[in-house]
Amino acid sequence: MSTHRTKVLILGSGPAGLTAAIYAARANLEPIIVAGMQPGGQMTITTDVENYPGFADVIQGPWLMEQMQKQAENVGTRFIHDTIVKVDFSKRPFVAVGDGGDEYVGDTVIVSTGAQARWLGLDSEQKYRGFGVSACATCDGFFFRGKEVAVVGGGNTAVEEAIYLTNHATKVTLIHRRGELKAEKIAQKRLFDNPKIKVVWDSAIDEVVGGGNPAGVTGAKVKNVKTGAVTDLKIDGLFVAIGHTPNTDLFKGVLDMDENGYLITQAGTPRTNIPGVFAAGDVQDHIYRQAVTAAGTGCMAALEADRFIAEHGIK
Ligand code: NDP
């Protein structure tokens, strides 16, 4: 067990954390970034990215995160593979403890722990996770080549995943609990124009059906929420795409958060309720949730940390 000391301690290594690291390192603050359970964050479970500015051609999410990590390290960031299990922000310097007992001590902290996929909460969903039930089409779609799958949700993620899955599956059923989608109109048009996709409206998954593990999913019982009628849908895979939950359990009772667990920052800034602790990326953003907005707030957090260090005369 060892102690790691830094002026800027960054928790989480998605676009927010890595951008904060790049800016902090270039300000000679020698930041430490603790990568967390999913180094690179949610971008590592996407494939094609065509909305991150600076790349004329389509790039891959994992590649972009690799580049960001290398860039952060090249300018002087220490990148450490560890997961924080406890924090003490009651006094400065702030302390975070890794799961192996290592201590990370920072004059400032940037929380960029991101968010993760939400599940339906059915026992049968839990039973078949990894055996036909997934929350990441781009990770697992390949396993359903020539098969039939369903996607649950009506947002951009669900629509994008349904379209993506048509690259592998012969038929994709999108199941949505309402009569209209929440996704952007352009994405909706692509969905409706795709002959491999069928949309089932006003419906919810009642139960995931299968042949036990490891045989996996064979179907789902789909309930029309208006009529109560339950129909059997034959599928080999079910993709749950119903939004995300911020990774903030660690900060309960420590940092102010909203009713959904997103960290609250002062309007237009990355400042949390504790001076010297900043939040950036999806952990504090339930609206935009883009890699580029996460990177932008990561930059803001590093600039604020630099200012905080200067104002407090920290050497
Ligand atoms: P959203 O919160 O936007 O959508 C979640 C969807 O799941 C909604 O349609 C919601 O239904 C449905 N849902 C929620 N809970 C349940 C439940 N328990 N059972 C059944 N359905 C449920 O999440 P997304 O992950 O789609 O998107 C998150 C954010 O990321 C958004 O801001 C989105 O625009 C953005 N995004 C942008 C992309 C892009 O620009 N390329 C790609 C992907 C995401 P209801 O409609 O009834 O609320």
Write a brief structural summary.
This protein is of the alpha/beta class and 315 residues long. It contains seven helices and 19 strands. It is elongated.
Spell out the blueprint of helices and strands:
Blueprint: E1 3-11, H1 15-26, E2 32-34, E3 48-49, E4 59-60, H2 61-74, E5 78-80, E6 84-88, E7 94-98, E8 103-111, E9 115-117, H3 123-127, E10 133-134, H4 137-140, E11 148-152, H5 156-165, E12 171-175, H6 185-193, E13 197-200, E14 203-210, E15 217-224, E16 230-234, E17 237-240, E18 244-246, E19 277-279, H7 291-311
Parallel strand pairs: 1-2, 1-8, 2-5, 8-19, 10-17, 11-12, 11-17, 12-13
Antiparallel strand pairs: 3-4, 6-7, 7-8, 9-18, 14-15, 15-16
Description:
This protein has 315 residues and is α/β, with parallel strands linked by helices. It is 24% helix and 28% strand. The protein contains seven helices and 19 strands. The strands form five sheets. Strands 1, 2, 5, 6, 7, 8 and 19 form a seven-stranded mixed beta sheet that branches. It has a five-stranded parallel beta sheet with strand order 10-17-11-12-13. Strands 14-15-16 form a three-stranded antiparallel beta sheet. A hairpin with a 5-residue loop joins strand 15 (217-224) and strand 16 (230-234). Helix 1 runs parallel beside helix 2, helix 1 packs parallel to helix 7 and helix 5 runs parallel beside helix 6 (185-193). The longest helix has 21 residues, at 291-311. It is elongated. Bound molecules: NADPH dihydro-nicotinamide-adenine-dinucleotide phosphate.
